[in-house]
Here is the input.
Amino acid sequence: MAVPNTKDWRAPLMSAVCYRDPKAALKFLEAAFGFELSMLIEDDQGNVAHSEMRFGDAVVMVGSEWSDDHKSPASIGGKNTQTVHIQIDTDVDAHCERARKASFEILVEPADQFYGDRTYRCRDPEGHIWTVAQTVQAVSREEAEQASGLKITGWI
Here is the structure.
């Protein structure tokens, strides 16, 4: 994995996910989602102290379990307190197959949503849940409200 120079660029918001085996996570996130390693900090024993992966202008930090409050879902019975969302502009069905081949469990197969996205949900080998979406249709707020029966505020 090549590590690009990122000292002059920092994302304004980043998610961080903890793994029992962060080096394995770097590999399966690259294989499944096409994330690119942008920073890797290792200790003198080669353990990951900190890492970051880019996806377009977004960044996800990938690290080790480092306290009782920072654990992989694999260490806490598969529980999750967050779901990471990825918005793509390419074929979401092909993306889903790529994730499946990279050992991700597909929880919800790709399906069209009332708000114009086609989405799928998957679980990585350590239990983190990821949602991936591609906008496939422009939908107005009024159309989304009518299709869903929900009141929507702040629709762009």
About this structure: Residues 15-64+80-148 form a domain with the 2,3-Dihydroxybiphenyl 1,2-Dioxygenase; domain 1 fold (CATH 3.10.180.10). The CA atoms of residues 29 and 156 lie 30 Å apart. The mean pLDDT is 90. Residues 22-33 form the longest helix (12 residues).
